[in-house]
Automatic annotation (TrEMBL):
Superkingdom, natural source: Archaea
Keywords associated with the record: Hydrolase
Regions crossing the membrane: none
One example GO MF annotation: ATP binding
One Pfam family here: AAA_3
Leader peptide range in chain numbering: none
Enzyme Commission identifier(s): 3.6.4.12
Matching PANTHER family: MAGNESIUM-CHELATASE SUBUNIT CHLD (PTHR42759:SF1), MOXR FAMILY PROTEIN (PTHR42759)
Protein name, as recorded: Minichromosome maintenance protein MCM
Record lineage: Archaea, Methanobacteriati, Methanobacteriota, Stenosarchaea group, Halobacteria
UniProt-listed Gene3D superfamilies: Magnesium chelatase subunit I, C-Terminal domain, P-loop containing nucleotide triphosphate hydrolases
AAA+ ATPase domain sequence ranges: 35-176
InterPro entries with a match to the protein in the record: AAA+_ATPase, ATPase_AAA-3, CbbQ/NirQ/NorQ/GpvN, ChlI/MoxR_AAA_lid, P-loop_NTPase
Amino acid sequence: MTDPAAFHDAVRDEASAVLIGNEEILEGLSIAALTRGHVLLEGVPGVAKTTIANLFARASGLEYTRIQMTPDILPADITGTHIYREPTGEFELQRGPVFANVVVADEINRATPKTQSALLEAMQEGTVTIEGDTLSLPAPFMVIATQNPIEMEGTFALPEAQRDRFQLKLTVDLPGREMERNLFDRFDDEPDIGPSSVSQVVTPEDLEEARAAVAETHVADPVREYILDLVRATRDSPDVEYGASPRATLAFLNAGKAAAAIDGRSYVIPDDIKQLAHPVLRHRLVLSTDAELGGESVDDLITGLLDSVPVPEEATRESAVADQPADS
């Protein structure tokens, strides 16, 4: 399977055996997986953040580990350490739970910043250094962190460097009445239903082939300029203390390719970038003091930026196709 759209559809359909709604969250996870990204899921307790991550990993055939983050967890509890074995008189490497394809850092903002930082090297380099030894992590490798809203008691804000390493921040909302009714009807009929009810429908090899197809997705020059204009607007806005980094620019580029491929297109259009603006930017922007005191939210600010940054007229669907290389 090399078709990214087929990869996403297979995972989504299998996960829907348990999950009701949240299709956009599953699409975000597919986008990240197809572009070697990491995802931060935020929502109040009980909205199935961890379940969504587990379902995605199981349906994708990826090795899954879950780390329950708490204030007393140590970096070595994540990465691993050397343990002395008395029978042999030698130290043996005990690998931590980070050595998996999909690592779920559950309630990441309940761990201290020092412990949160244990994931920095893993997320950026795909390696872990344990007592001077640098070890490669399994491929593919993806971190899905869940987080409760920052204002809730007993949490620590993620450091800026940590947040920037997440390609997307997705918000898991409370379900509407009809969706919640469908939810408790399903669990009333099948009380034991859960992630174990989901089967593997794709393989890691399928994922690698789909990634190669995503990399070939075309991005026309007007769309590239639109991405640059949007990122620049975050840096120039008087309501933003710290704007988006170059890593955000690359996140737009890569995630835009995956979104287009999932939609069955071989080229990116401005609407792909618009739909990704909130997930790509909401965790990277730091509001100015005046904006915070004025009650402005980051999502409201991003919406305003989307309204203020013009979409180039030439960046239409037709020009995106015409601008593709002749052999595409």
